[in-house]
Specification:
The complex is a heterodimer of chains A (105) and B (330). Chain A is α+β, with helices and mostly antiparallel strands. Helix content of chain A is 33%, strand content 14%. Chain B contains 1 helix and 32 strands. Chain B is globular, with a radius of gyration of 21 Å. The chains are: A alpha+beta (105), B mainly beta (330). Chain A binds chain B through residues 13-21, 23-25, 28-31, 33, 37, 74, 77-78, 81, 85, 89-99, and chain B through 41-43, 45-51, 57-58, 88-89, 102, 118, 146-147, 163, 169, 171, 194-195, 211, 239-241, 257, 260-263, 265, 279, 282-284, 286-287, 303-308, 312-313, 317, 323.
Chain lengths: 105, 330
């Protein structure tokens, strides 16, 4: 069986204490749209963190579906913007159409 | 029976604060009635901080990680809100006189300066904070450029680069210096740059990354109080108000928008000579409100894509940083 590098979950970041310094040193985290979190480990520490933050485990495909839904909505919001708000980059705005995100296993 | 005194030669001290304690020492915090342990972090990492009350991007910050002030920004519209952070939570303080976004800041939580915000006519306006309220100063910037970088103190600040506030939106190299009563033009950057990181004091500054006419870059320029000089470049090009904190010889750059236009969490440390990559932000973002030092930086809010603003706050703790832990029975 292929070794899994990451775990995914859905958890609400409540702020201070959600990811502690020790958590970050041991595990590594990446946030995605839809309150999806990737934990860069697949071990007891990762499971412990997900339990501590009352996260809901997600398979790769489940997490991808959540992210896809968020991105699709963001793309629709972008498409609905007036043309003048989609002007070429002027450096200070984030003005490109949201791109699809592919989660890694 | 083995005792702490038996092992360490001294009893557990009862103290009101950790002043004077050393690494490895256990002490009794008589102000909070808990035992504490002084430790030192082995590795650098970002942890979550108290979230912003409202998702905000393009706000301007200054101060330390545990005594920050963040002002202005955009929550869907430009705001005049000003918030203080104590290391755990945000509380409102006096509003800016004018709602603005993309401003630059200098100073500290109790004595701050904000300038070069958008939209017009705010671009030339300067406001000063006395710890409670903001006041518009008579001093105005000479340029109406936007996306500028700022640093320094409330009475000795620098405002650098930016871009024209209208088509063709070209990056600028202008530098202006504030002496406590007026802004004056001084020597320009070697390369026009906007939406970069900027740290330091009026006589010793650093500008890094950003967007030049060549696109998003890793450029770094150092200011000696008179002139800018190009120094070693960073590793990951990015712009769009990346986070920045520190001083000329010890800086941190985090987040921003990397080419072609994707929010990044990339974090790099400057040791006075070179940039080195370290642990990235958990939440990749641009348009960040930043404050702090190289070893204790703060990333507040920011944005990801059009309309998606963040309330996430992250705190960077560098390796070798002293940390006080509360001992529990668990």
């Amino acid at each position: 069986m292929a070794h899994k590098t990451y775990q995914y979950c859905v958890a609400e970041n409540w702020g201070k204490g959600f990811i502690t310094h020790n958590d970050a040193v041991k595990l590594g985290f990446t946030s995605f749209p839809g309150e999806v979190w990737r934990v860069d480990a697949h071990n007891q520490n990762a499971n412990g963190w997900i339990a501590n933050v009352k996260g809901t485990h997600k398979t790769l495909s489940e997490a991808q579906a959540i992210v896809d839904a968020e991105i699709t909505q963001a793309q629709a919001d972008w498409d609905a913007l007036p043309a003048e708000q989609k002007a070429p980059s002027v450096g200070f705005e984030n003005i490109s159409r949201p791109e699809d995100i592919t989660l890694e296993e | 029976m083995t005792t702490y005194k038996g092992i360490n030669g001294t009893a557990v001290q009862s103290l009101a604060s950790n002043t004077g304690t050393i690494e490895g020492q256990i002490w009794y915090d008589n102000a909070n009635n808990v035992f504490k342990l002084e430790t030192v972090t082995a590795s650098a990492a970002w942890s979550t901080g108290g979230s912003l009350p409202i998702a905000t991007q393009q706000q301007s910050g200054c101060g330390t990680q545990t005594a920050t002030i963040m002002s202005g920004g955009n929550t869907g519209s430009d705001v005049a809100t000003s918030l203080k952070y104590d290391g755990s939570a945000w509380t409102a303080t006096g509003n800016l006189n004018t709602a603005q976004t993309l401003s630059s800041s200098a100073g500290e939580q109790t004595a701050a300066l904000i300038f070069a915000g958008r939209p017009n006519p705010v671009t030339t306006q300067t406001e000063s904070y006395n710890g409670t309220t903001w006041s518009i100063l008579p001093a105005t910037l000479n340029s109406t450029d936007i996306g500028r970088m700022g640093f320094g103190t409330q009475i000795a600040a620098l405002c650098v680069g930016g871009q024209l506030n209208g088509p063709p939106w070209a990056a600028q190299a202008n530098t202006e210096s504030y002496n406590g009563s007026a802004w004056s033009s001084v020597n320009s950057l070697n390369t026009a740059n906007m939406s970069a990181g900027g740290v330091g004091i009026q006589t010793a500054g650093l500008i890094f990354f950003g967007q030049t006419p060549a696109g998003r870059v890793t450029n770094t320029e150092s200011w000696d109080g008179t002139c800018w000089a190009a120094v070693n470049s960073g590793n990951s090009a990015r712009s769009n108000r990346l986070g920045s904190a520190g001083i000329q010889t010890a800086a941190i750059a985090y987040g921003g928008a990397a080419p072609p236009n994707a929010a990044t969490g990339a974090t790099e440390l400057w040791d006075g000579t070179c940039w080195a990559t370290t642990t990235p932000l958990s939440v990749a973002r641009e348009q960040i409100g930043s404050a702090g030092t190289q070893t204790a930086a703060l990333a507040s809010g920011g944005g990801v894509d059009p309309g998606i603003k963040k309330s996430d706050v992250e705190e960077f703790t560098g390796a070798g940083t002293a940390v006080t832990k509360t001992l529990t029975t668990s």
